[in-house]
Every structure is written in C-alpha cells, then in structure tokens.
What does this fold into?
Amino acid sequence: MGDNFIRLNGEASSGTNYGVTLAKIQANWIGDANWASINFEDERTSGTGTHKSGISFTTRTGNNAGSERMRIDSSGNVGIGQTSPATKLHVKETTDTTTRITIDHSSSGNSYGGFIGSLSGTLKGLAIGHKFNSTFTETARFSDTGNFSTSVGFIWANNVSSDKKFRWARTGGNTYSLEHDTAGFYFWNETTSTNALKVLNNGNVGIGTSTPDYLLDIENTSGHAMARLHSGTNGSSSLRLQNDAQHWDVNLQTNDKFAIYDHTAGTQPFTIMPTTGNVGIGTSSPQKKFHVEHTAGASEGILISGASDTAGHTAGILLSSRRRRSRFRTKSKGRNILRKNCYLWNRKNCI
It folds into this structure.
C-alpha cells in the first residue's frame, strides 16, 4: 500500500497558457470577503521551456485584491514580501521603511529582543538593534562601503580562554591588528611580527617593547630611541614634571628659547638663547656665553664648594691657557689675575 496524500491536478499547456495557477487551497468564512489561500503556480514566463512550479501564500482583507505575502519558488528560495526571491531567504518591505527580521521573547509582561534590518531611503547597508515591546532602537550599522558604526560607544569581544583580535589588512601594505591577551592590550604589526604599542594590565605603556617597566617606556633595539614634541607656527612644546608640591616645565618657548621653567613659582631659572647659544642662570636674556644673575640682596652669584680630603683636594675653578697667563676679571675696581694652571692669583700668591 503506498503513501497517503492529496493530489490537486491542474494543467498549464503550451502556447499562451503559462504563468497560471495550477491549483489553489482557499479558506474563508461563509459570507465574509476575508480569505487566505495557498496557490500552486506555473513560474514560466513564456510558453516554452521546462515546467517550473512554485507556491505562493495570499491573504485578502475586505474588498481589497488579494496580496501575496510569501513565496517558495522552484529553486527553494523563500520570499517574504518579495515575489522573485533572489536568495534562500529574501525579505522586502514595499514601502520606504526599514525592513526588519525580529527575534524576541516575553518576560514579566514585556517583549524583549533584537533585530536585523535594512536601512531606509536610498541608504544601502544593514542595521542591527534591540527591541523593547513595540520600540526598535538601532545600535549599529554596516554601510555599503564596508564601514561599521555603533551608537553604544563600545564593541564587546568576550571569551574566557583565547586572545581577541581586530585585524586590518591592505593590498600592498602591512597587516596590523589590535589584540588582547592575559598581559594586556597591544597594537601588533603582523607583517613584521613586531609590537608597535603595548598597554599592560598595570597601566604601563610600551612603544617598541612588549614589556614596559615604566608608565611610558620607549625602546628601539636597532638604533636610537627618540621622541618628538612638535608644535605649530609660533607655538611652544613642553614636558611637565610634576609631583604633589612642585611643577617644572622643560620648554621650547614661542620665542624659540629653550628654558627650564618653575611653573609653581612662576620663574625661569635656566635659559638657552637661540642662534647665539648664550646660557643664562637667573636671567631669561643672557648677554654672554655664560650669564649668571641673582636677585637683589643675594649673598653670591656662584658658589663652588667641596670637602677637602686627605690628599688636599679642594673645589675651585681652573683656567688654563697655552699662553703664559689667563685672566679672570671682576666688575669691581680691583682685578684678580689667574696664571697658568693656577686656581686664583692675587698678585702675590696662587691661591
């Protein structure tokens, strides 16, 4: 005994009799214009060629014409709102609104879920979002150019056992990736297998090293290590050293002077002039190669001191010249003369 089934026979002959409904199952209330039907149709667009059959699902409300809601074509493609599905599942909205595929559940009298949908208007791409009851909120989208954007402010990649990676590859260029492991977060050059930047879990940042020992650790194992602060026209570049009580700035100023600036006291104790190279201590405009200036009432401008040892060594200034004498002049009436290899000469003795 064979299988039990119901067969509805219809015929689509050759010639002009094609693209017709072969059979139909229709249900409606007696005396009611509303109905729904399942239609078995010939899909041919001409009177020749192999017969192809599809199934469409149609509903009618009131006196309106019946509207096709879903179709399964002869190749197995399913169309919802689409009479000619191009893929295994093809969903289309006939009006200029976002088409959505929604997955949700109910809890405590509310509906929660998410959706995947198209973009409205002339935009091309895909929208992703969440749903609460009848409210849909887009949280991310992929554009037709391949760009990804999100409105939630972060991208979450979570796995308890393996490393995470976002990768960028370009034809003819290097491949880079942002990666995360148990030690920290790093920016990796996959082409050269080198670490460009690493942030450890303790907050240390390494440039050129994957094991930074300090808050900022810059390393170049094959040459010089250099960092640059580059300001614009008439700008300044500064490095500030600060603790709880004192601020110091190492500063290239807008007037092109190099200075060490006491930001706490608002003074500039050290200056190097551009072009001339004059060095100033206590003055921001040194007039000579070495210019020391102290405030009024200070007891001395330069103090050189040192403890004597058993060999009789002391601290001092030694002026040496190939000539017979080197001179050290003051701005007072007298003058002190330094002789060759003598610390200080007072016209009588070398002291």
